[in-house]
Amino acid sequence: MKRKPDKRLVDELPDVDVPPGGFGQRELAVIEKLFRPDMPDGELINLYFLIHDWTMDSKWVFGARFKQIEDVLIARMCGREPEAGEVRDLPGFDPEDYREATEFVCSGEFTDWQILELYAIAQTNLTDDEIGHRWQAILDLCRAQILRRIKATRAAATRRADDETASRAGRTPAEIEARHAANENYGERIRAWRGKIGMYERGLGAALCLTEKDIMEAEAGNPVIDPRMMLLPLIFADDYCQTYEDAHRSTAATYVTQFYEATRRMTPKVREIWLLHHVDGLTVAEIAEWQGISTSMVTQRLREAERDVARYGPQPPKPTGRKLRGPRL
């Protein structure tokens, strides 16, 4: 956020109705308006470091609210509330130590307190004309590491909850591990499929752009030809033969997106049974024996999955063109 030299940070805050009071009352009112314990991770990080700057100047005004938001962010990163006497081994980097700071954040061997402190250090060094861009890269890496830790903590909590549910259902540890492996395999297949479709479409789109560029330059009488044009017949020969039209190229990506949306809306139990039946090829009786439930329950969950696929999954293409009529008698 760019500011004029004579403009205070308090002047950039949104207008709120605040009763007359002492210093910092307007900022505290904005914090009350923005902060929610269930707010998105990115917004929580932004709010945390905004209040961090204010707290450095006036800890007696913003210290309590800063501690509350800091506890929420740390709890998301490590899955527990921080202890009162927890040791904070904070890193100390001078502005010229950007190389060491980059290696530190890329190593991943840091505590939650250290990555938050390094984020704050990077923020203070952004105004340096010579090395500000290097600290901007460190700032982005710190943010990515914070979000990665939050995601990993949530995934671990979800897995523990699934393990407890499976243990209460009487499943053995081997069965629980096999279930996690099946879910991870499903996720890897979907991600690989979407990545393959995306790379294919980007490559074909680049080829078409180069072709259009060459045609335009030829029409304009420009003798300069992109040297990459000579490689297009070799690189995209099969692609041009198979799918050339935009409508056909977008069908595959639409199919993947709709299929992913349909499976995402299924409950974990229904999705697992549907994948075991359609992907792994198990019969209803085999799935019932594996899950420890009746065949009627397996059939019922398969019907639920089929309804989700029919509602949210890929739809059959609608016929186009005029209808063919038979000969008149």
TrEMBL record:
Entries under SUPFAM superfamilies matching the protein: Sigma3 and sigma4 domains of RNA polymerase sigma factors
GO molecular function: DNA binding; sigma factor activity
Stored InterPro entries: RNA_pol_sigma70_r4_t2, RNA_pol_sigma_r3/r4-like, WH-like_DNA-bd_sf
Gene3D superfamilies: Winged helix-like DNA-binding domain superfamily/Winged helix DNA-binding domain
Official protein name in the record: RNA polymerase sigma factor 70 region 4 type 2 domain-containing protein
UniProt biased composition (Basic residues): 320-329
Region (Disordered): 307-329
Membrane spanning stretches: none
Domain named RNA polymerase sigma factor 70 region 4 type: residues: 258-307
Origin organism lineage: Bacteria, Pseudomonadati, Pseudomonadota, Alphaproteobacteria, Caulobacterales
Record-level GO BP terms: DNA-templated transcription initiation
